[in-house]
Specification:
alpha/beta, 2 domains, 37% helix, DNA-binding, 209 residues, elongated, two-stranded antiparallel ribbon, 6 helices, four-stranded mixed sheet, 24% strand
């Protein structure tokens, strides 16, 4: 027989809270102590007419050993939406084009852009014990810098291009750059726009001749 006071919430309610916690982890929106306390209070006010306490939370975690505290790893919304089917379709499409056109390694270039946002703070959340990774989706911030990198399958590397937010940018910023030939430009938002990618396409066409 269990010692101590009777739990404020019935087992069915606590099991429902545990299922909710696990569900939020699955969709990569894990919850922490504050969110769990809020959810439990909503239920307890309906059942018992009062809020749960810190003591309830501690005992709740003890009664549900499958849950544990973890540090969530941040993941942007675009990356959060990619799944295995998307990756396989991209690979098959690229392989088909390369085979049909007989493209050589020095004609295959990979152009990618990476945005550096303001540092997103990691937070402690509750997750299923022994989970390999605990991800959380981060909202898009207002300021960021973009870097465009490009390289060929043959090993040729195009110097990077830095994109800063604003209408103009001083070229003196690159005086301390350690990479020869690096470029810099600006767009109103700091995002890569069609005009910038168009410049890259022109360069690649000249390179592949």
């Amino acid at each position: 027989q269990r010692c101590g006071p009777k739990p404020l919430l019935p087992p069915e309610a606590e099991d429902a809270i545990q299922d909710w916690i696990i569900g939020r982890q699955i969709v990569r929106h894990p919850v922490g102590r504050v969110e769990i306390m809020k959810k439990a209070t909503e239920i307890s006010e309906l059942i018992a007419g009062r809020s749960v306490t810190d003591g309830w939370y501690k005992r709740f975690m003890q009664r549900h050993p499958d849950l544990t505290e973890r540090m969530a790893q941040t993941l942007s919304k675009p990356r959060n939406t990619v799944d295995f089917a998307d990756t396989r379709m991209l690979f098959n499409s690229l392989a088909k084009v390369i085979i049909e056109t007989g493209t050589s390694a020095d004609q295959v270039f990979n152009v990618d852009e990476t945005a550096f946002y303001k540092v997103a703070k990691s937070k402690r959340v509750i997750a299923v014990r022994r989970s390999k990774n605990v991800w959380t989706t981060t909202p898009t911030t207002s300021f960021h810098m973009t870097i465009i990198a490009c390289g060929s399958a043959a090993g040729f590397i195009v110097p990077p291009v830095f994109i800063l937010p604003g209408k103009t940018v001083s070229l003196d910023i690159l005086k301390g750059a350690e990479v020869d030939g690096a470029g810099i430009t600006s767009t109103p938002s700091g995002f890569e726009h069609g005009v910038v990618r168009g410049m890259a396409v022109i360069f690649l066409r000249r390179r592949s001749r």
